Amino acid sequence: MKILVVIFTFLSISMFAQFTDDFSDGDFSANPEWVGNTSDFIVNASNELQLNGNAEDGGTSYLSTASESFYDASWEFLVKLDFYPSGSNYCDIYLSANTSEITAATQGYFVKIGNTADEISLYRKDNTSSTMIIDGKDNRVDMASVNVRVKVTRDFDGNWTLMSDTLGGTNYYTEGSVFDNTYLNSQHFGVVCIYSKTRANHFFFDDFIVAGDPYVDTVPPLFVSHQIIDNQNIVLIFNEDLDPTTALNTDNYLIDNSIGHPASVSFYGATNSQVLL
């Protein structure tokens, strides 16, 4: 028996856009939730996010949180480093990343504070390599105790501006501007600390303010094919994950030959791109 399934418009899945966190709640487990090397960080008595990493060998530690802010967006944060930054002791702030594990092969953009030039610069991350796209002023953070507030903006088209105040205020100095639209969306924001054993608890972060619009997918998911399971079940296959609110609504499917709406709908398999009627 041939059947016709009428599928109504679905939406793609979405995450979180803007957020703020000053750690005044005393932790980083909620509102928002940060994930990663959670055992390597604490919220200290001053309500700052502080690295509490490997004091025997040093290493790399990170945290990330969900964020889709990318269009007409701004990122602000305060970083304190209780040491002279160097090529072995510095931090990267990921404004956007396509994975929560931001130390892995990642696509996105990040601000590097420190490194050998003691500068504040903007980089693009291309999986396992990175490219500096705004070269900040050298020796900007060449000091024994860094207390810098950073602001980055990106307009709708992809024009970036990097600013900083090395006194920790909002009297911003413009490090530079650039156009780059290599990547068009964001899924995560995060911090990465690269440190030696003597600097394992000398990184501090505070006052994260991330705002902006997420990428909007205006192209509906495309129905690709179907699979007949038996005389009561059929699987529909789409080209991308679906929004559960619409995809799991039985009213959004209509089958001909007087069958009508399905009795139930559920996701099928390991992804949200297949539904079982």
What does this structure look like?
- It is elongated, with a radius of gyration of 23 Å.
- The longest helix has 4 residues, at 244-247.
- It has 277 residues and is mostly beta strands.
- The strands form 4 sheets. Strands 2, 4, 5, 7, 12, 13, 14 and 16 form an 8-stranded antiparallel sheet that branches. It has a 7-stranded antiparallel sheet with strand order 3-6-15-8-9-10-11, with no helix packed on it. The protein has a 4-stranded antiparallel sheet with strand order 17-18-21-20, with no helix packed on it.
- It has one helix at 244-247, and strands at 5-7, 19-21, 35-36, 41-43, 49-51, 59-66, 71-81, 90-97, 106-114, 119-127, 129-134, 146-154, 159-165, 173-179, 188-195, 203-213, 223-230, 233-238, 253-255, 266-267, 274-276.
- The two termini are 17 Å apart.
- Helix content is 1%, strand content 47%.
- β17 and β18 (233-238) form a beta hairpin.
